[in-house]
Amino acid sequence: MPNDRPEPKIVIVMPAYNAAKTLEQTYADIPHDIVHHVILVDDVSRDETVEVARKLGLEVITHRQNRGYGGNQKTCYDRALEWGADVVVMLHPDYQYDATRIPALVAPIVAGEKDLMLGSRFLGDPLAGGMPRWKYVSNRFLTGVENAAFGLHLSEYHTGLRAYSRRLLETIPYRLNSDDFVFDQDLIAQVVAARGFAIGEIAVPTRYFDEASSVNFKRSVVYGLSTLRVVGRYLLHRTGLRRSRKLRPRARREAGAA
Fold this sequence. Notes:
Order of helices and strands: EHEHEHEHEHEHHEHH
Mean pLDDT: 92
Strand content: 5-15%
Structural class: alpha/beta
Largest sheet: 7 strands, mixed
Low-confidence stretches: 252-258
CATH topology: Spore Coat Polysaccharide Biosynthesis Protein SpsA, Chain A
Distance between the termini: 43 Å
Strand order of the largest sheet: 3-2-1-4-6-5-7
Helix content: 40-55%
Number of strands: 7
Number of domains: 1
């Protein structure tokens, strides 16, 4: 019996800042036979990121002022939903994550089995790929804390390759999240708090080299502390000690307002 369901629209979004040296390599690895559209949001890069992206034929959105990693992603998801995406893949354009793994990443979402898929470095050996040992240790610690708080058993929460269902992005209030790097952890806390969304992960090889974007040690400390604050906010919300507007699904809040 033929399948009459329309083919889901898969859109890749790339939050970019000074990615001119790696963008073309990243784009070349994208499986274009299954991807319907690619959007790059440039956060006031000081190099030729915009020129390279336009040469490659990407849809390019440029910010007039730097909005931060989280602020960039908000624009990415807003535009992907406007375009009609059924599945949105967030891919760092720094060639650190293996984009050829995108078909395996989105397959569970296309099948209706998952709503959020993470490309995990820790289902493989990130140290073999060049991850600094201090970053490895901090990632293991934060992931353990988040697993304990969220009741999950993920191998990693801090990846730059992830995919979302349209239903998820239309439900969680991601626009309330941080404009900084902790945006991703805000979002996962929202997904867990909303309930009813299935999360999965696949192994994704990574590369570490000079041109690959990386948060330095000082910023990593700030990021780690911010992640712990996200966990604390979630626990207070879950126990009812301090309810957070950020952790209330949009659909429920709008229904309550009505």
